[in-house]
Amino acid sequence: MMKTKGGDVMQSFVWHDRERATGTAQELVDLLLSYSLLHKASDIHIEPLDNVLRARCRIDGVLHVVGTLPKEKAEAVLIRLKIMAALDIANKRQPQDGRMLWRQDGRNIDLRLSTMPTVRGEKAVIRILGENAPDLRLDGLGLQEKAIRLIRRIIGGKNGLFLVCGPTGSGKTTTLYAALREIAADDVSIATLEDPVEYKCDGFCQSQINPKGGIEFHNGLRALLRQDPDILVVGEIRDAETAAIAVRAALTGHLVFSTLHTSSALGVPGRLVDMGVEAYLVADALIGVTAQRLVRRLCTDCAGKGCDACHGSGYRGRICLAEVVPVGKALRKVIRNMGGVEEMKRAAAEDVLFFDDAVRQALNEAVTTEAEIHRVYTE
After folding, report:
1. What is the pTM of this model?
2. Contact at 8 Å (CB) between 218 and 276?
3. Which of 67, 139, 205, 309 could bridge across to 191 with cysteines, CB 3.0–4.6 Å?
4. Among positive and negative, which fits the CA dihedral 5, 8, 14, 18?
């Protein structure tokens, strides 16, 4: 059994075992969703194995088995999910994607459903998107004080391109929105284009990519630029055309926020050049870059030994390890001349934060472990 913060008790396994499986498909799905939200899961994996249907939740970046059902329950559960997401229940041979709203405690929870045919039947993955986050701030992300100070300095300008980088699941969008909340005001127009919209913030003009409706990143950005924004948010720079428009917007008086898949902050200029943006434009547009990873924090209840509160893992919650590089005059010159990473590192001002320093501080403060940092940096 597992105690929640509110004192309620919930079973560690949310689905009954094979001998005692009961309940309708709706009840089983509701139970799984309730459990996942209670334990702050980011994703739910529902997958057919040889003899059972297995459910796993990704909590703090790691998958945990939360229950199994007999194989004969699989079809009913998948049909229930497809109905909720308005997908074709008869189509079992092609991948499908959909959205569903699930209501709990007076709140509408935004979920994304993805189905995929496998040799044992259809697998479903549910992504739990962020809810309204009115209190999201940089100092609530577990960032180092130096990282917060540098990011605030970078986003204090009126124009330029600020990029948040890292692998999938590293919290890029959360950091981006926390930065936006720092500078949001009644006299600032903020327009976003995302796929999907993960956080809904009152006061932001948020738009979502809709390929079927003809809205892609490139043409959506052009449309948003005609909406007189002060701050333009591009959910992710994925292709050359989007990169070119984002850079152009940053050079014509807009403050542009976006995310990019690179492993380090100093890898960003080369990535943009590889996408077809001229080096001199990258140098002139970039005002700062942060790259980050999320590492699990040691459980405060058991000090890493493993307990019910942390699913026996020894960790509960996560902190953000980041490197933050403001782009100053010397660094711009190196980027313009297409210098390498080591040359850029030497040209970066002293007031920067690199991963080595962030990792060293986290270990000195005993908030995580070397094993956890190794897991994140080598996965």
Report:
1. 0.84
2. no
3. 205
4. positive
How far is the C-alpha of 247 from the C-alpha of 281, rounded, in Å?
7
Which of 62-66, 163-167, 347-351 has the lowest average pLDDT?
Answer: 347-351
How many angstroms from the chain centroid is the CA of residue 223? 25
Residues 6+ apart with CB under 8 A from 357: 146
Residue of higher predicted confidence among 13 and 246: 246
User: What's at 107, amino acid-wise?
Assistant: R
Where do we find the tokens 């998958």? 63
CB atoms within 10 A of CB 216: 17
Residue 134: Cβ-neighbour burial (10 angstroms; 0-12, 13-18, 19+): exposed
Report which of 143, 137, 130, 218 is spatially closest to residue 184, judged by C-alpha positions: 137
| Nearest CA among 237, 239, 243, 255 for reference residue 281 | 243
In three-state secondary structure terms, 49 is coil
Distance between CA atoms of residues 19 and 344, nearest Å: 62
Dump pLDDT digits (tens) for 99-128.
Answer: 998 888 778 888 999 999 999 999 999 999
- Write down the number of H helices and E strands in the chain: 12, 15
Q: Mean of the pLDDT values across residues 159-175?
A: 93
Residue 179 above 60 pLDDT?
yes
Q: CB under 8 Å to 171, separation ≥6 — which residues?
A: 141, 292, 294, 318, 320
